[in-house]
Design brief:
With about 725 residues, this protein is of the alpha+beta class. Bound molecules: 2-oxoglutaric acid and fe (ii) ion. 2-oxoglutaric acid binds next to strand 15, strand 17, strand 21 and strand 22.
């Protein structure tokens, strides 16, 4: 029964049933063979790739396009110029093509009210999308075939828009092939097979680069590197290699051009003929290897190969040369604050001031003063955590010891990550800075939630398919029965705060605190990198594997979350935040009041409270660590309920930093370790999703305003819960 087997392998939750042999034959006969030479349609290029990698094409689409598709699908609408075919039964509309979804509700909407609101303006795209077996969104799960056709651009434009590792280029109409390499790493590639003779190409491109380089052409991350580099005393060169296609009969030679920014020659641009790609790329790589000085710009934001924890410990007030400089006219032009400002405000962890704190389990820490914070800040008047409720036996680890590579402490860390996936981290001493930041951010949280609701709602970006910003009270479904949550939260993007992406609109109470957020994010990230470093060594992965999947300066879904849960009426105390595993890698959580509960593994386990301990963060692992290690490390299920005992009458604020894998990282078992269990046969065929898609799927899936079937689909938005229960997936 090959039919059944395939369905199980590729899509466990909503099995995909492939067309039977007869339908497949028919379809194959109909399918036009792409031409061998010359003008192959772009979709062929992509679908060939798909066949090889088995990664659904939807995940390969440029992120802007994907995001638009998701958001339109969410509101149950139709999109001009997109045709989706379900399992071989073509359903097209002439003229205004529409999305035809299996989902009845969406289909009913098609062609009605929403249609006129939808417009795609991205030109120059043509893709064929086949056999989507696993998609981030449940509606897409039911689609087996998608064709996207973009019309050519109406006018000559040459702009790039940045999107993770995918850059979209709306090209000059004559531009056919374009690749941009930055420091040997490929960042952009538009490579349709149908290149044509474009004699004027390089002149016009150069003209654009010269004219608009600073404003329009370069993606923001290149601009940021340039800005940082210009603010530094280091000399560097930035190489942009632009590959383009010409008609071989034209016989043009390699062209090299240099582009200058005011005051500094920083870009060396090469235009390379298509036929010389391999050669040129090989040369480029060689250059970087042989002249490491040229790659300084990357080390400005820490080299991708270096661990994030400072190899040389710094004191709280020390700054590097780079941080001291920074008054370049360019250093401040893209964002409210520069990275150097942010770095100056951050408290670097000082491993030499390590305190010799006891590292006992929670059952042995009852003598710690539990009612207040480690840092006296006037909020110690909170009611006490009761001593008659079941608490989870989390290990309490010491940051100081872990930083000092204390072998016993590292063993306890490993144990905590494998057994429960949750532990306390005593931050006192080396982490005093982050504790101060946390105290300040709790106050920021209070101010934020005091804003009028209409003001907060302006920052709900759900309809833009973004999980950053505000989520109102009751906006998420917490269980299969459709009950809704009882908290508000606000997600603040690390990429935004560290100027790696365009800033999102934010209320003044937040936008004035960017340096504080930056400091908190950098310190939290440093702690996480230290944890990842120990885990990497323990797992026997190649050096820096885990750290390099979580580089602070790379695009990721990392975020701070400020949460508020008001007291609930005695007669109606419900779940505040539904049970879940965290979507990313490592979470750093600050609690003042109880209410957080974990569900230990095992059949008969029941929910236990996690008692907040002053001076300690609660650390837990998320889905990515479970995926990377095929369940060896745990991403534990947890939830938030009304705080226990007297605490139930207080408003519960909490503060979280979520570290997630970089956007393009695949959520699947990592190679290169003997300790990570092999995937079983069934899992091997599983198609991996990128971290970005994983998080979007999980974060927005429960928002009932966009996913009308959030309760029904509850399970399809889950992460590694079953793995966490150690029940298999
Ligand atoms: O508020 C808390 O204590 C936990 C929050 C949490 O688990 C989350 O936001 O993922
Ligand atoms: Fe969580």
């Amino acid at each position: 029964m090959p039919k059944k087997k395939k369905a199980a392998v590729n899509n466990r939750q909503t099995p995909y049933v492939p067309p039977n042999a007869a339908t497949r034959q028919k379809a194959a006969a109909k399918k036009k063979k792409p031409k061998k030479n010359g003008k192959q349609p772009l979709w062929y290029h992509h679908s060939r790739k798909w066949k090889k990698t088995r990664i659904p094409l939807i995940l390969r689409l440029p992120i802007e396009l994907r995001d638009m598709i998701y958001s339109y699908l969410f509101v149950g609408t139709t999109i001009a110029d997109i045709t989706i075919t379900k399992k071989g039964t073509a359903q097209r509309r002439r003229g205004a093509q529409s999305i035809m979804l299996v989902n009845k509700k969406l289909r009913a909407d098609a062609g009605r009210a929403f249609f006129s609101q939808c417009k795609f303006e991205i030109p120059h795209f043509k893709l064929h999308h086949q056999h989507i077996r696993e998609n981030p969104m449940s509606t897409l799960n039911r689609i087996s075939n998608l064709t996207v056709v973009w019309t050519p651009p109406p006018k000559s434009t040459f702009t790039t828009t940045q999107s993770d590792d995918n850059l979209l280029v709306e090209t000059l109409p004559e531009l056919k092939n374009l690749t941009i390499d930055l420091l040997g790493r490929q960042y952009l590639r538009i490579d349709p097979e149908n290149s044509e003779s474009q004699p004027k190409l390089h002149e016009s491109m150069l003209a654009y680069f010269k004219k608009e380089a600073d404003e329009n052409v370069l993606p923001i991350w290149i601009k940021n590197i340039i800005a940082k580099a210009q603010a530094s005393t280091l000399s560097f060169k930035l190489f942009l290699t632009v590959y383009y296609a010409v008609d071989p009969s034209e016989g043009s030679d390699l062209t090299t051009a240099t582009i200058s920014w005011p005051g500094k020659e920083i870009v060396n641009t090469k235009l390379v003929r298509r036929t010389d790609w391999d050669q040129a790329r090989a040369g480029l790589t060689k250059k970087y290897i042989s002249e490491p000085a040229d790659v300084e710009p990357v080390s400005l934001s820490r080299s991708p190969r270096t661990p994030m924890i400072d190899p040389v410990p710094r004191t709280r007030n020390s700054t590097t040369d780079m941080e001291k400089s920074g008054n370049s006219p360019h250093s401040n032009q893209y964002r409210n604050i520069t990275t150097s400002e942010a770095t100056q405000t951050s408290r670097h962890l000082d491993i030499h001031s390590a305190l010799k704190m006891a590292t006992e389990t929670i059952t042995q820490t009852n003598n710690i003063h539990l009612n207040g914070h480690a840092n006296a800040n006037g909020t110690s008047s909170l009611p006490p955590f009761p001593d008659d409720v079941p608490t989870a036996p989390l290990l309490a680890l010491s940051l100081a010891k872990l930083q000092n590579n204390d072998p016993e402490e590292i063993n306890r860390l490993i144990r905590a990550c494998e057994d429960l996936g949750f532990f306390y981290l005593d931050l006192q001493g080396p982490g005093d800075g982050i504790l101060d930041d946390a105290d300040k951010l709790f106050k920021v949280g209070e101010e934020l939630y005091d804003l009028p609701l209409e003001e907060k709602q302006k920052y709900d970006f759900m309809h833009k398919n973004s999980y950053f910003g505000y989520k109102g009270f009751g906006a998420n479904v917490v269980d299969k029965t459709g009950r809704t949550d009882r908290n508000e939260f606000y997600n603040i993007s690390k990429d935004d705060i560290l100027n790696l992406s365009d800033p999102l609109p934010a209320p003044t109470v937040l936008s004035t605190q960017r340096p504080l957020f930056a400091s908190f994010m950098q310190s939290s990230h440093a702690i996480i990198t230290m944890i990842l470093t120990h885990l990497n060594t323990h797992l026997g992965l190649p050096p820096h594997t885990l750290q390099n999947l979580h580089r602070l300066q790379s695009h990721s879904g990392d975020q701070v979350r400020l949460i508020k849960a008001p007291p609930q009426p005695v007669s109606d105390r419900q779940i505040t935040l539904g049970e879940h595993t965290d979507f990313g890698s490592v979470t750093v959580l600050f609690n003042r009041l109880g209410g957080l509960q974990v569900l230990p593994p095992g059949k008969d386990a029941s929910w236990c409270y996690v008692k907040p301990i002053p001076g300690h963060a609660i650390i837990n692992l998320g889905d990515a660590m479970a995926k990377f290690t095929n369940g060896l490390l745990r991403s534990n299920i947890h939830r938030v309920v009304s705080p226990p005992g007297e605490q139930a009458d207080a408003t519960r604020y909490s503060l979280v930093y979520f570290a997630r894998p970089e956007n393009g990282v695949l959520m699947r078992r990592l190679e290169g370790s003997d300790r990570i269990p092999e995937l079983d046969g069934e899992d091997e065929g599983e198609m991996a999703m990128t971290a970005k898609d994983w998080i979007i799927r999980r974060a927005l899936g429960h928002r009932h305003a966009i996913n009308k079937e959030a309760a029904m689909d509850f399970e399809s938005f889950q992460g590694t819960e079953r793995l966490s229960r150690r029940e298999g997936r």
